[in-house]
Write a sequence for this structure.
């Protein structure tokens, strides 16, 4: 810095001419100093040469932050990074908390897209997914005594179960362009004697189903035809109750009545209550694959090629509108609302009501659904069942459903096992009927994320109504007309999962849940943290800027005060200041 001292000024005051010469000399010195040092300030001249600015300089000038140190630049960079991270975390926060994007992404793995791994495993599953069928037979232990008048009530004994491993594959499969798949179930059975309390060769005394069914069919024939068929069946001397092995009763025995062409027998030679379950089903099913809408996943759209049933009266009862029993749309389960299952054995949909959240196998959470108690209630108790009674000659008390049209006009009346939730008047003439909710009510424990049953039991009882036509009049005098005779009840459950399967199920379930929770609360934490750091960084930079502005204003005021005092005495003082120019934290000096 080069300037005139106070002593020199004092000497120059008396001599005006010397003062003028001295001022010229000072100006010359100032110009020389500006040339060598690049920066000079005077009371008359602020800057003698413009400096070339970089783009960063101009940006910082626009923000008022040109004189930033390297620490300030680091703070600014961190602020930009935090802002980017904040935007990403806030986006993730809204996605995880307010959308179903994560769940829907996971659910894409369960849709039945053609040639997908999920579809392949559904079409031809391994034995680890096999179900278990348990068959209970009602044995009429004293029916001969009852018919002879030696017993007051018919005693039935619940024998079983006979337990079978049920393996199901899909046959005659066709994937359609409207996001549906058409198929038939093909089932095979393997006896599990270690889980059975009844042997297949045990003898049981049971209703003669072909005879009881024929009695109803023959009643509708014209008089001449009816007379001929009655005579032929009477010639066979078939009893109303007959002795069969458990295997014959369930899986088939050769019967003369079933083969009568006049009764629609055709090529039929054998009858068994479960005979049609073994092999390829006669019924075709079409269901939604979920590709276009996950909410429609597993919903049955056609049964035997028809979008609606024709067994009942009214659109509501004829709507199929239910899921295939082995899988449900997870989005419907999230709402804990009622879901419907289409049961082929009943030819109708059945509601399942959410009951509670449950933990099974020690550590796996499921949603428990149960059938309501009024599923088979009389229309006077459940008006929704009114259309199930319109097309029938007889609407029975609560507890059974008239499914004769579903079974080719055979008098089949399904119910819950032991007529659970039914009117006791149905079984007033029986002993051995003991309804129990724990044993006889249908329920399903469904995986909340993937929508497949992990546990549960589908329970249905098959009954036949005794219609006292002339064909049976002489054999069943004591039995009241329209008596419902229980035949069998079946229970279908999930197979036994080994420890490896349960462990895999546990890991997949809680692993996905843990990832979802981590993403939800992680994005929330990062959003809050980055926002706090952004606020702190902005506050720091703003404080720094205000501090620099205050210091600059103070320096300018002091300089103006000094120059103003000297000018009052007729003197000019030139002050040269070397100021380090920092851009991006690195000092630049003019040459």
């Amino acid at each position: 810095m080069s300037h005139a001292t106070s002593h020199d000024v004092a000497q120059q005051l008396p001599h005006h001419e010397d003062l003028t010469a001295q001022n010229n000399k000072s100006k010359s010195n100032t110009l020389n100093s500006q040339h060598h040092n690049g920066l000079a300030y005077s009371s008359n001249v602020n800057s003698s040469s413009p400096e070339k600015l970089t783009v960063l300089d101009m940006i910082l000038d626009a923000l008022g932050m040109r004189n930033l140190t390297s620490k300030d630049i680091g703070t600014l960079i961190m602020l930009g990074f935090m802002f980017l991270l904040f935007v990403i975390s806030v986006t993730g926060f809204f996605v995880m908390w307010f959308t179903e994007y994560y769940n829907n992404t996971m659910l894409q793995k369960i849709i039945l897209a053609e040639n997908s791994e999920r579809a392949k495993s559904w079409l031809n599953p391994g034995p680890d997914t096999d179900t278990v069928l348990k068959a209970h037979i009602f044995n009429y232990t004293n029916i001969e005594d009852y018919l002879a008048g030696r017993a007051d009530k018919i005693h039935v004994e619940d024998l079983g179960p006979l337990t079978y491993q049920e393996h199901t594959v899909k046959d005659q499969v066709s994937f359609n362009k409207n996001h549906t798949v058409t198929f038939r179930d093909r089932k095979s059975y393997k006896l599990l004697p270690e889980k059975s309390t009844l042997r297949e060769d045990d003898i049981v005394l049971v209703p003669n189903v072909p005879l009881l069914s024929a009695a109803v069919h023959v009643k509708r024939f014209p008089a001449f035809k009816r007379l001929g068929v009655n005579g032929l069946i009477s010639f066979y001397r078939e009893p109303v109750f007959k002795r069969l092995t458990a295997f014959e009763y369930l899986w088939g025995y050769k019967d003369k009545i079933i083969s009568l062409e006049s009764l629609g027998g055709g090529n039929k030679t054998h009858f068994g209550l479960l005979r049609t379950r073994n092999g390829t089903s006669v019924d075709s099913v079409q269901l939604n694959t979920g590709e276009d809408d996950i909410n429609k996943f597993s919903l049955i759209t056609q049964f035997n090629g028809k979008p609606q049933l024709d067994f009942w009266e009214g659109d509501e009862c004829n709507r199929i509108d239910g899921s295939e029993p082995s899988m449900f749309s997870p989005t419907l389960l999230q709402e804990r609302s009622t879901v419907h299952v289409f049961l082929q054995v009943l030819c109708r949909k059945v509601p399942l009501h959410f009951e509670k959240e449950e933990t099974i196998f020690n550590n796996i959470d499921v949603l428990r659904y149960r059938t309501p108690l009024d599923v088979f209630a009389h229309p006077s108790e459940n008006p929704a069942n009114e259309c199930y009674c319109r097309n029938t000659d007889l609407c029975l008390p609560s507890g059974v459903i008239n499914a004769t049209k579903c079974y080719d006009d055979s008098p089949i009346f399904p119910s819950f096992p032991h007529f659970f939730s039914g009117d006791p008047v149905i079984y007033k003439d029986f002993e051995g009927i003991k309804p129990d909710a724990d044993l006889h009510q249908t329920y399903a424990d469904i995986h909340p994320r993937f929508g497949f049953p992990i546990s549960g039991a589908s329970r249905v009882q098959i009954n036949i109504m005794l219609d006292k036509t002339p064909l049976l009049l002489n054999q069943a005098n004591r039995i009241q007309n329209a008596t419902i005779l229980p035949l069998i009840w079946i229970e279908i459950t999930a197979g036994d999962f080994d420890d490896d399967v349960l462990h895999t199920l546990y890991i997949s379930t809680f692993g996905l849940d843990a990832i979802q929770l981590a993403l939800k609360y992680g994005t929330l934490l990062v959003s809050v943290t980055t926002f706090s750091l952004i606020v702190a960084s902005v506050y720091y930079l703003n404080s720094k800027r205000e501090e620099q502005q205050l210091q600059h204003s103070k320096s300018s005021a002091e300089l103006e005060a000094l120059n103003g005092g000297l000018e009052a005495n007729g003197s000019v003082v030139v002050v040269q200041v070397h100021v380090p120019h920092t851009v991006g934290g690195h000092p630049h000096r003019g040459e």
Remarks:
- Confidence is low (pLDDT under 50) at residues 1-49, 577-591.
- Residues 62 and 200 are 94 Å apart (CA to CA).
- The radius of gyration is 46 Å.
- The longest helix spans residues 499-567.
